[in-house]
Write a structure and sequence with these properties.
Blueprint lengths: L9 H10 L1 H20 L7 E6 L4 E6 L2 H9 L6 E3 H7 L15 E3 H10 L14 E6 H15 L11 E5 L7 H8 L2 H4 L2 E6 L7 H5 L8 E6 L2 E5 L2 H10 L10 H15 L18 H12 L13 H21 L7 H20 L4 H7 L4 H25 L2 H32 L5 H5 L2 H11 L10 H5 L11 H16 L5 H23 L13 H13 L6 H6 L11
Parallel strand pairs: 2-5, 5-6, 6-7, 7-8
Antiparallel strand pairs: 1-2, 3-4, 8-9
Helix pairs in contact: 2-11, 5-6, 10-13, 12-13, 14-16, 15-17, 16-17, 16-19, 17-19, 17-21, 21-22, 21-23
Length: about 575
């Protein structure tokens, strides 16, 4: 078997990023805010922000004085966390990040305090703007920009709204592994963050040296005088942040480091790697390793030119291994759309099966239940494949944070509803064939319950059936996917009511259940919410109706008995 070759695309991604005006626009906004503050106020420990309206985008820039940022982060408590459980009641704007699989995370305390100090005056209507939104900041201002972006993720509908882009310059890490997992697990969120880090800047590395619990998320654009490259894997980013720090005396001036980002932004789109790195590998070097060597050279990690405490070969090997893991993770992420064509094929098979059963005057529920033809066995494969698909999709949506899960639910609601209405009756048939009872309370699988819940949470028009419903009734699926479970329970009630071994209490309970079922059926038929197949003479529903008529006698009259006199008109919408 041929092994798939892996490549590293960090250099190409970096070239793409720096070729866009967005990096220049973000830095220009920060620099303009810095110029304005330095002329009017001078240094302070506070974070300032300003909204810049451009013709093609809206930019919200956060500025923090470089020297103060470094001291603030390095000082006592600079690496402290605030946990999500603490924030849950006092500042609940990040609760949506918690999931069943990832219930807890923590945010850097100084960054959170600065954010909350200006929260009340931050613009709240930015999401209503049709223009793209860029949120940017330097040093601790970048941390606040990241926290602000996090607070917006819950409200963004990524299906209809352009996602915000947060660009930070020299920002410290802001969260623990829980926060990193909450963001990195979902590409729609992770892609909202781009962190630019200079090899001369100590601030992004301060919390790494203090403690290992801080973890990065998003894409990191690491820069040096030789060029730049992008990295996404958190472990690789941590390793390279420390390995690429130049640590020379002149970069101890925070203001010079701050200004150097402007030089980087100006020069990056013209930057080429002028140092020949081909001596570091030959034609037998695997493409992934060769690509990583080139990437590392672009950010200043050139073989034979590193201090003795940096083993470049170890870094190359570790980076290659992490790239493989990241590629595998991305491959394993459940994406419903990749299997959509196969799902459509299996649903088409079920539609055909349903049609054949109808032509046989029995309906697909009873055909499957009675195993009348070989096709009743063939359909089991389609049923299992579809069930596995939708179980996984529902499980994935439930695990995801609220906004991401909601987007997934909305996108697949129609398909999930069709699947539930088509397949659950077959699940019910298997359940009652096994001699079991009370499917709805005792045997209904969780994913059907969730799919129905999603539909019920979706606003829909109310009122009398419209003309289109009547006209299309011949082809509809029964709206209540548990309809046949109600039918089976009604058949059981008929047996209990007429059985000689039933107690008076059992008979009364059965009679009450039958009256309840009668009203339930009448409502469905009146609203054209059931498939006409239920009226086929060999269906379980018609079996129940004949038994029920016999029990109640010819003198019994109700809304349903009157309606059933003309049930043959139902399929034409003229009942």
């Amino acid at each position: 078997m041929t092994q798939t070759q892996l490549f590293s695309s960090g250099l190409e991604l970096a070239n793409f990023v720096v070729s866009l005006d967005v990096l220049h626009d973000a830095w220009t906004a920060i620099w303009n805010l810095y110029t304005e503050i330095s002329q009017n106020e001078g240094p302070s420990s506070l974070v300032k922000f300003k909204v810049f309206e451009r013709t093609n985008c809206t930019i919200i820039a956060f500025f923090a004085w470089p020297a103060n940022s470094k001291d603030y982060v390095q000082g006592n408590g600079g690496g402290d966390f605030v946990s999500s459980s603490t924030l849950k009641k006092s500042f609940p704007f990040f609760n949506f990040l918690c999931t069943k699989d990832n219930p807890e995370f923590s945010i850097n305390k100084p960054a959170l305090e600065l954010f909350t100090s200006i929260f009340d005056v931050l613009p709240k209507s930015v999401m209503a703007n049709s223009k793209p939104l860029i949120i940017t900041g330097n040093s601790l201002g970048g941390s606040v920009a990241s926290v602000f972006t996090l607070s917006l993720l819950e409200k963004f509908n990524f299906l209809t709204t352009k996602r915000p882009l947060c660009i930070t310059f020299g920002s410290p890490l802001i969260g623990d592994e829980g926060l990193q997992e909450a963001i990195s697990k979902y590409a729609a969120w992770s892609s909202c963050f781009l962190h630019v880090v200079s090899d001369q800047d100590p601030v992004p590395r301060v919390l790494i040296s203090q403690t290992v619990v801080y973890k990065p998320f998003g894409t990191f654009l690491l820069c040096s005088k030789l060029g730049c490259s992008c990295f996404e894997d958190p472990s690789t980013i941590l390793e390279l942040l420390m390995a690429t720090y130049s640590g020379t005396p002149e970069n101890q001036d925070p203001n010079l480091v701050f200004e150097s980002y402007g030089t980087f932004v100006k020069d990056l789109n013209r930057k080429v790697i002028f140092m020949d790195t081909t001596e570091s590998f030959d034609c037998t070097t695997p493409p992934l390793r060769a690509g990583i060597i080139t990437q590392l050279a672009a950010i200043g990690l050139v073989p034979q030119q590193q201090p003795h405490n940096i083993d470049i070969n170890t870094i190359i090997t570790k980076t290659a291994n992490q790239e493989k893991k990241l590629a595998l993770f991305k491959k394993q992420v459940f994406d419903p759309s990749t299997q959509l064509n196969q799902v459509k094929i299996h649903m088409a098979n079920l539609e055909w099966y349903k049609k054949v059963a109808k032509d046989n005057k029995i309906g697909y529920y009873d055909s499957y239940k009675n195993v009348s033809h070989t096709s009743d066995l063939d359909v089991v494969k389609d049923m299992k494949i579809l069930t596995c698909y939708w179980e996984e999709l529902v499980n994935e949506a439930e695990k995801r944070p609220q906004t991401v899960g909601a987007s997934l639910r909305t996108r697949w609601l129609f398909g999930g509803t069709n699947y539930r209405r088509m397949i659950e009756p077959l699940e019910i048939a298997d359940y009652y064939k096994a001699g079991k009872q009370d499917y709805i309370n005792q045997g209904r699988p969780k994913h059907y319950i969730k799919l129905e819940q999603w539909l019920n949470e979706t606003p829909k028009p109310v009122g009398v059936p419209n003309e289109s419903m009547k006209q299309n009734v011949a082809s509809i699926l029964t709206e209540d996917s548990c309809f046949w479970a109600h039918v089976e329970e009604a058949l059981i009630s008929c047996k209990l009511l007429t059985g000689t071994g039933s107690s008076e209490m059992e008979k009364q309970s059965s009679r009450d259940s039958l009256f309840e079922f009668e009203n339930y059926v009448y409502g469905l038929i009146k609203n054209y919410a059931v498939s006409p197949e239920i009226f086929l003479q060999r269906s379980s529903f018609m079996q129940w109706w004949r038994e029920y008529e016999k029990i109640m006698g010819t003198s019994y009259s109700s809304d349903l008995t009157k309606l059933m006199k003309d049930y043959d008109k139902y399929a034409t919408g003229s009942l």
